[in-house]
């Protein structure tokens, strides 16, 4: 709810009442409130329990009733997908309470602070005097001035709990009302105070136009009823003795005789479609302001990941959706990352270097990591967890039965039977295979195995024993069972074991480890860090090194020759860190690269 417009009326019998409320909702939610439109152009609303309760909990008369039986008027804005609904009471409970609170205050305790000399007189009314034969003097009308000078006008009130209200109180002339006038208010209710104050003049001017329209219509009816010959009978009968009566007695006497507080707004204005007309005015106010006022959420300069996501248009070249890659930033992926990091760290070291360091070094330097696993879902979880350590522009995830080179996918998953290309060198190949002792504890019941074997077209003569004596299970049979027997519980990483099949030759101790690898390893293996903190710190580290890559990219393309080795020394980066920065430049967006090159070319043109 950005804003709600409502027309309020002070009923002589029931007190402050909301005549009609106009609010905007999404077209997707329209079916939750409305039934198909009737032939009369009105829409009947679904009799939801809360909505019907609000309609019946307040006693109303004809004067304080606009739409009956839950009817209302709807206007659809097809361009933006918004429906404007006008009903007697608001559809939403929260909006209903806010409007009811504002209605009570606008017609009772909240009084405008506008000076008497500056009270906006929208439509001055000339009082109609009774023509007495003996004298041409008109009745004095101090009651109009006393009633209009205090309460009519614009006022802004509210708080954070009850919302903020812009109220415009006014009066309509009614020949059969007490004091010959009806007290109403047009209110705008919103939770956002800034929305009202920043558009104050627009709302006041448009609400004034609506009020002028109502006053013009009521004045015409008021004058017509005063000139009605049927109303002159009482006036002529009392005219001969008017000079003998106290001041204003005749006016009070006539008013009491002709008093009718049950006249509706349609009778006062002489328009049967007055509420439909008001609906059009209110929709115009809300719709115009929605189009004029556009809100922008400024989050600072967009990150490289945001630009890459926008450039990929939610779909990457290798078939993996950008949405899936962005999921690597969720907390579940960091939980998976910590789990597999501990598993890799516990594997035997290679040349004094842990398998986790080998995998992380291969990852941040742009090498390819191949995971062989029959479970495609588990394989993608592993690859997505690793991708959380890289900028989105450096991530190319793929799972396929055929091998793809590193320029196609640097995080590649495949089944165990997939043969790698002979020219695929300097890659890390991991095998993720299930532990056979887990098979025994995950076997289905005998009936399930029989059903599964029949459905798969195979026959198993005897069930597999789960006793400790039967440890010599044929490996091929076990693998076959993995494929045909559905486990009662899905396997997780605890049920698998990693095996390092191949690794690059640069893992010898003479080669150093990049600084970012040591930082990542320290963070991931720290169990004291919560996953939310881990995600924040890893993201900060990733952005820090991406900014270094941006600096190297800018300086490396300048006209003057710049010694990048000295730049690396200034940034306290080693030779191995330079390889990381070179790979991270692939994570820079195309927009950023074009902007940098455009500035450099412009500077070169000025030098010439």
UniProtKB/TrEMBL annotation:
Comp. bias regions, Low complexity: 453-466
Primary site of residence: other
Family: Belongs to the folliculin family.
Gene source species: Onchocerca flexuosa
GO molecular function, one term: GTPase activator activity
Region feature Disordered, mapped onto this chain: 447-466
Biological process (GO), any one: negative regulation of transcription by RNA polymerase II
Origin superkingdom: Eukaryota
Transmembrane domains' residue ranges: none
Subcellular location(s) of the protein: Cell projection, Cilium; Cytoplasm, Cytoskeleton, Microtubule organizing center, Centrosome; Cytoplasm, Cytoskeleton, Spindle; Cytoplasm, Cytosol
Protein name: Folliculin
Listed Pfam families: Folliculin (PF11704), Folliculin_C (PF16692)
Keywords carried by this UniProt record: Cell projection, Cytoplasm, Cytoskeleton, GTPase activation, Lysosome, Membrane, Nucleus
Recorded GO CC terms: centrosome; cilium; cytosol; lysosomal membrane; nucleus; spindle
Family annotation (InterPro entries): FLCN/SMCR8_DENN, FLCN_DENN_C_sf, Folliculin, Folliculin/SMCR8_longin, Folliculin_DENN
Domain UDENN FLCN/SMCR8-type: 87-589
